[in-house]
Write a structure and sequence with these properties.
The chain is mainly beta. It has helices at about 1-10, 85-90, 220-230, 345-350, and strands spanning about 25-30, 35-40, 50, 55-60, 65-70, 80, 95-100, 110-115, 120-125, 130-135, 140-145, 155-160, 165-170, 170-175, 190, 205-215, 240, 270-275, 285-290, 300-305, 305, 315, 320, 325, 330-335, 340, 360-365, 375-385. The two termini are about 35 Å apart.
Length: about 400
């Protein structure tokens, strides 16, 4: 314990008396009011370039979601996202959620929300239900569950690792369609609000779309219900930074980890920080997690306002310190036999965060089998934007 106390003083951490995980890979808030680019706030899917007829700045689904984009089916309105390794690797074990407000079901009685350009997978609505497509393999049709026109509805599509697709309306699981094969590889770009860019029918969406979230991994019923209950929030969804893979600041003694971890420790890998639940200041569901740690060791999750050295971190102990600025200790934790740990406190309350705050998080941990001789190391870091 004395080692932890000394470490807290070294970090400048203040204590306070206040009391395959799914990963967000693309998040299109669709809040833009000018220009022709729709930003991926998760930073992994790629920004979309608008084409055809559309309207920015439409009133969004709820207070937490901001604005929306209205797509004109007749004018072939859509957003085009260049394919990349993150979206391109999703063949199954994936989830998509979005708010939609259709004015019609489209001239082909089909309107797509997010799709590979005539390839890979796609999700959308029909005049008589919901559809998820693995192009040239299967149309997963849930008939009889009709999305109403001219009102906002929250939809979820979850394709699990065994290729079955579950459909959700307003946070409720409304049915599952079984499948046998994963989706094929994307042949080109990805599309917001359309199925294809060239061959008719384009199956363009006719109406407003808001807050598209794409996850690698299958969300649970509770996850989807949480996203519906807290519009605009994400499941963790923080952007990790400060990887200990020697792509930025070098690890202290030739002990690099990977692109999603800190510097290597005595377990043979680096520690990876993650999140579960909603980054909501009022919901009390956000949990910080970490894996790839030495077993049965103590650690400290801590919070800061800033990312150090432009997010590349500075050498500290056997690893990199990535987070600073009004650093605050959140919780002392112990790793289990598998080298994992997580918080059990109300992170928002312990960190004193408010809606709209952007905070950074990291784990310091002891490592008796230290590689560089410092007896401690750190995970990579994660940045969270806190919602109401």
């Amino acid at each position: 314990m004395r080692t932890l106390q000394l470490l807290a003083l070294t970090l400048g951490l203040s204590s306070t008396a206040v009391a395959q995980e799914a990963t967000l890979v693309a998040h299109y808030r669709l809040d833009e009011t000018a220009g022709a680019v729709l930003t991926d706030s998760a930073g992994q899917g790629g920004d979309a370039v608008l084409q055809g007829s559309y309207q920015l700045g439409t009133l969004g689904a709820a207070n937490g979601t901001g604005g929306a984009v209205t797509f004109d089916e007749a004018g072939l309105g859509m957003g085009v996202v260049p394919n990349g390794p993150t979206l391109g690797s999703l063949r199954n074990d994936l989830s998509v959620t979005a708010w939609i407000n259709p004015v019609s079901y489209g001239s082909a009685n089909l309107g797509r929300i997010f799709s590979g350009d005539d390839s890979a997978w796609s999700c959308g609505i029909k005049n008589n239900g919901l559809r998820f497509t693995t192009r040239f393999i299967q149309d997963y049709d849930l008939n009889g569950t009709i999305v109403p026109l001219n009102q906002w509805t929250h939809l979820g599509y979850v394709m699990n690792a065994t290729n079955d697709v579950s459909f959700y309306i307003n946070g409720v699981n409304v049915g599952t369609v079984f499948g046998s094969s994963p989706a094929g590889a994307p042949a080109g770009d990805w599309l917001i609000g359309a199925f294809r860019t060239v061959l008719p029918p384009s199956e363009c969406f006719d109406g407003a779309i808001d807050d598209i979230q794409i996850y690698s991994g299958a969300l649970s019923d509770a996850d989807i219900a949480s996203l519906f209950a807290a519009p605009g929030s994400t499941l963790g969804g923080g952007a990790t930074f400060c990887a200990g893979d020697d792509s930025g600041t070098l690890c202290p003694c030739g002990n690099p980890g990977t692109s999603d971890s800190g510097c290597q420790n005595s377990s043979g890998v680096g520690a990876s920080i993650g999140t579960q639940g909603l980054a909501s200041a009022s919901s009390q569901t956000l949990v910080l997690t970490a894996t790839g740690l030495p077993s049965n060791q103590l650690g400290i999750f801590f919070q800061g306002n800033n990312s150090l050295n432009g997010g590349l971190g500075v050498q500290f102990g056997d690893g990199l310190r990535c987070v600073g600025g009004a650093a605050r200790r959140l919780q002392i934790v112990s790793t289990d036999f598998s080298g994992a740990t997580q918080t059990s406190v109300d992170v928002a309350a312990r960190g004193g965060v408010l809606a709209g705050d952007i905070k950074r998080y990291q784990l310091w941990y002891s490592d008796p089998g230290t590689l560089c001789g410092s007896l401690f190391n750190l995970s990579n870091a994660v940045e969270l934007s806190w919602q109401p």
